[in-house]
């Protein structure tokens, strides 16, 4: 995103045509044309990926019009009758509407909040360790779950929490607590979702903070040492300010993506018993659209979510720019 | 080196496998170690370090215990697993679970399919990514700014699942292998990484020299740029490969015939929906015990390929570490 903002030295491709520059050089337009002609191979190369983006990213945006239509297969996307905002209306008037939106919002916000401090703590602690082998081991082991697939993480979670054979019920047994059916109880769903997520990603995110910590000017540590700072003081006065920009950007991005929670994990953790807390917009879209074949309604719900998320992203970026001077784009 | 690229890397969670690229994991903090030799530590610091080690040991345990439990269970007897007697060490050692898992035809087909999707998909993805990143990295590529915007916009706003499904449907790709490869072929984030890397690691003079020698742009790409870009190619290839290997959503959406299913979808059916493949055991009791055990062995079998290449990935990440650290 930020890095996506082109830093290309801008060669104006025309439009603001100034025919001849005072010094008699050719106009920028003809320079551009000459460059295009000389580098025709580059354009040929770019063609296939651009066609990809056109077909699989931009055509779907256009197909989004079915959200305003009553789509049926026979008439196709453009032949189906317009119905205006009917699909949105029927979603909003659906008794499940508030529950689904609320679930989506709470779940993502919980993820953002829980996943924020733990990698920082992990990275700061790792950064203190001088024992090389221990440091490497902790780093390698905590990073590993990032490479495990969602399906496997979810099935590990289910097995782990199983009241019959799971390790969790054994552990509870030690405290004299009977086994609990964690996945059958909607109240536990969010905690299971969020903490298994933290389990999977904390090590990975910590690596980013480690990189930020490594980039802190060593002279700051020298100065801290001269001033006789303790380790805790060094963390508070050197480490934390040093990773603050990184932390801020990660948090902003998290907040900006707050409605863009993934489909995969929630869908896998869902069961009829916890549906009241686990039904979120992406899973609802999948069920409405592909299982019930109500394409228009599902597209409307999806569009609703995309637009809210886009607005959130733009707003968060605006605020970040105002407050810190650093935006994402 | 306040790498902004590295940062977004993670946050844009909506992009696939987003940016496992920053990891300077092995090289962090080297600089400080040299200067950090202390003469004496105060008592406060000593207590503090004790806390640090305790905390990190807790982290280690929390990550390791579930993994060890799965491994131990997978090598236990069906009965021990079913009665929940396994903790961190195999009980009544047996490899029955692996025998059942590896004789399951769905698992074998899924494994083969996943290998196919991962290898072919990664090849296509990397090729397309380089094909767009290379022109965008050239400073004399007219229109690059606009094209970058067009691509990056797809990160901010997407058509959505259903409209994309309709495209795949109209291309006649439903229930074909193409549906697993093409719709998610190019990642915006990977394009940005590749472009940034090429722009910063290949000196402008090289292009000028090549041009004077009469080499065409494609020739330059093939014999100059690609050999220089190996670390970056390795990293984006790994990102794509891991995404392909681990994904199941596209298969769930687009595939109907189970002989096309990737491993993750087969695993989902067995592990989460509990539809274990036909085993030849007789009693209900035994069936149920085997079904439990099968899950643990399957988890191990499907995770091992990824964890095996993990140290190899880490090595490449250190090579490519500068990539994320360069300012866009």
TrEMBL record, chain A:
Key words of the record: Cell membrane, Membrane, Transmembrane, Transmembrane helix, Transport
Location of the ABC transmembrane type-1 domain: 101-316
Transmembrane segments: 42-59, 105-126, 138-161, 202-221, 242-263, 295-320
Membrane topology: Multi-pass membrane protein
Record's subcellular location: Cell membrane
InterPro entries, per database record: MetI-like, MetI-like_sf, UgpAE/MalFG_permease
GO terms of biological process kind: transmembrane transport
Database matches in PROSITE patterns: ABC_TM1 (PS50928)
Region of interest called Disordered, as start-end residue ranges on this chain: 1-26
Gene3D superfamilies in alphabetical order: MetI-like
Domain of life: Bacteria
GO cellular component labels: plasma membrane
Record-stated family: Belongs to the binding-protein-dependent transport system permease family.
Name this protein carries in UniProt: Sugar ABC transporter permease
Source organism of this protein record: Phytoactinopolyspora halotolerans
């Amino acid at each position: 995103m930020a890095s996506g903002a082109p830093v290309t030295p801008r060669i104006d491709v025309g439009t603001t045509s100034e025919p001849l520059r005072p010094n008699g050089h050719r106009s920028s337009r003809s320079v551009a044309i000459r460059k295009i002609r000389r580098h025709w191979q580059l354009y040929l190369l770019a063609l296939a990926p651009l066609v990809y983006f056109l077909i699989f990213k931009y055509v779907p945006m256009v197909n989004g019009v079915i959200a305003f239509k009553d789509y049926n297969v026979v008439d196709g996307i453009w032949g189906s009758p317009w119905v205006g905002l009917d699909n949105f209306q029927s979603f909003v008037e659906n008794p499940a509407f508030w529950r689904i939106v609320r679930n989506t919002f709470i779940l993502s916000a919980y993820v953002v909040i829980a996943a924020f401090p733990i990698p920082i703590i992990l990275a700061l602690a790792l950064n203190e360790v001088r024992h090389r082998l221990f440091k490497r081991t902790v780093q390698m082991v905590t990073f590993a779950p990032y490479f495990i697939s969602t399906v496997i993480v979810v099935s590990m979670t289910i097995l782990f929490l199983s009241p019959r054979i799971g390790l969790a019920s054994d552990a509870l047994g030690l405290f004299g607590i009977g086994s609990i059916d964690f996945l059958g109880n909607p109240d536990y769903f969010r905690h299971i979702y969020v903490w298994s997520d933290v389990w999977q990603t904390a090590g990975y995110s910590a690596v980013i903070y480690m990189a930020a910590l490594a980039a802190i000017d060593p002279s700051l540590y020298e100065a801290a040492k001269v001033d006789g700072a303790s380790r805790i003081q060094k963390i508070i006065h050197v480490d934390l300010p040093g990773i603050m920009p990184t932390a801020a950007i990660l948090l902003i991005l998290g907040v900006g993506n707050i409605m863009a929670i993934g489909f995969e994990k929630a869908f896998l953790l869902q069961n009829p018993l916890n549906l009241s807390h686990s039904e979120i917009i992406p899973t609802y879209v999948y069920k409405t659209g592909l299982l019930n074949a109500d394409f228009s309604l599902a597209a409307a719900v999806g569009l609703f979510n995309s637009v809210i998320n886009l607005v959130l992203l733009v707003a968060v970026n605006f605020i970040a720019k105002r407050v810190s001077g650093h935006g994402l784009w | 080196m306040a790498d902004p690229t590295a940062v977004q890397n993670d946050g844009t969670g909506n992009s696939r496998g987003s940016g496992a690229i920053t990891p300077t994991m092995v090289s962090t903090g080297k600089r400080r170690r040299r200067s950090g030799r202390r003469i004496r530590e105060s008592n406060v610091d000593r207590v503090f370090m004790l806390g640090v080690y305790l905390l990190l040991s807790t982290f280690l345990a929390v990550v390791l215990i579930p993994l060890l439990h799965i491994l131990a269970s997978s090598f236990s007897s069906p009965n021990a697993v079913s009665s929940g007697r396994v903790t961190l060490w195999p009980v009544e050692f047996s490899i029955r679970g692996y025998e059942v898992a590896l004789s399951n035809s769905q698992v074998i087909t899924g494994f083969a399919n996943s290998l196919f999707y991962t290898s072919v998909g990664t090849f296509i993805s990397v090729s397309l990514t380089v094909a767009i990143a290379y022109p965008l990295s050239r400073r004399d590529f007219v229109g690059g700014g606009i094209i970058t915007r067009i691509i990056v916009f797809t990160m901010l706003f997407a058509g959505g699942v259903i409209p994309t499904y309709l495209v795949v449907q109209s291309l006649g790709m439903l229930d074909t292998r193409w549906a697993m490869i093409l719709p998610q072929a190019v990642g915006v984030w990977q394009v940005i990484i590749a472009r940034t890397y090429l722009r910063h690691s290949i000196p402008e003079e090289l292009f000028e020299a090549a041009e004077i020698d009469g080499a065409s742009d494609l020739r330059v790409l093939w014999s100059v740029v690609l050999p220089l870009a190996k670390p970056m190619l390795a990293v984006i290839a790994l990102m794509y490969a891991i995404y392909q290997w681990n994904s199941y959503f596209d298969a769930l959406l687009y595939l109907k015939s189970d002989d096309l299913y990737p491993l993750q979808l087969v695993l989902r059916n067995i592990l989460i929906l509990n539809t274990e493949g036909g085993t030849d055991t007789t009693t209900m009791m035994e069936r149920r015990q085997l079904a439990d055990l099968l899950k643990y062995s399957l988890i191990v079998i499907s995770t091992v390929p990824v964890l095996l290449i993990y140290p190899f990935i880490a090595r490449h990440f250190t090579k490519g570490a500068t990539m994320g650290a360069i300012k866009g």
